């Protein structure tokens, strides 16, 4: 069980590192958007590559940080029952939710995205705009990265739930103070 726990820890560290890394794209996104607006409305200059870079930044930020958000339990959940449930019940809900919903959906994303993305790579798909960013194939690849990272985090969640249900791991601490009010 230690090896399995170590695998979950490794997945958690990878997604933590990636999530923290791509979070910096939010600042870059705001700065680029500011420059685009400034150029357009103050100087009357348009830039297709800069406008398209906003799409790349936005997609990379959200697809790259999805597993990080899952790791930190930040996705939207209808938790009328979950909030008041015991730690054991929460572990069961998370375990079954990951097995029944999360992993199958990530498999669907992967299997339907694969042909779409490989065909994009085959032609090195670029922007429909002549002056645009000629790397749409790289942008589409983020779909597969998303599926892999979220599926891996799902596996980590499953491992943590099993460890909690067998008493080998303590449940996560409940938020208190300002964190509880935020939730």
Describe the structure.
The chain has 183 residues and is an all-alpha fold. It has one domain (2-72, 85-171). 74% of the residues lie in helices and 0% in strands. The protein is built from 5 helices and no strands.
Question: Could you name the key traits of this structure?
Answer:
elongated, mainly alpha, 183 residues
Concise structural overview:
The protein has 183 residues and is mainly α.
What secondary-structure arrangement, pairings included, does this model have?
Elements: H1 2-41, H2 48-71, H3 87-122, H4 136-165, H5 178-182
Total strands: 0
Overall helicity: over 70%
Rounded average pLDDT: 93
Number of helices: 5
């Amino acid at each position: 069980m230690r090896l399995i726990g170590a695998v979950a820890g490794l997945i958690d560290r990878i997604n933590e590192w990636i999530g923290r890394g791509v979070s910096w794209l939010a600042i870059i996104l705001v700065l680029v958007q500011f420059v685009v607006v400034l150029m357009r409305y103050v100087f009357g200059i348009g830039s297709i590559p800069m406008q398209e870079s906003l799409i790349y930044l936005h997609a990379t930020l959200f697809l790259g940080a999805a597993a990080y958000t899952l790791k930190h339990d930040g996705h939207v959940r209808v938790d009328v029952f979950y909030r008041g449930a015991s730690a054991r019940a929460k572990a069961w809900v998370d375990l079954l939710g990951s097995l029944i919903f999360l992993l199958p959906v990530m498999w669907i994303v992967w299997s339907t995205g694969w042909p779409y993305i490989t065909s994009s790579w085959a032609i090195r798909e670029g922007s429909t705009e002549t002056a645009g960013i000629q790397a749409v194939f790289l942008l589409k690849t983020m779909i597969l990265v998303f599926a892999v990272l979220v599926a891996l985090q799902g596996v980590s969640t499953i491992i943590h739930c099993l460890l909690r249900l067998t008493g080998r791991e303590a449940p996560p601490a409940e938020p208190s103070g300002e964190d509880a009010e935020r939730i």
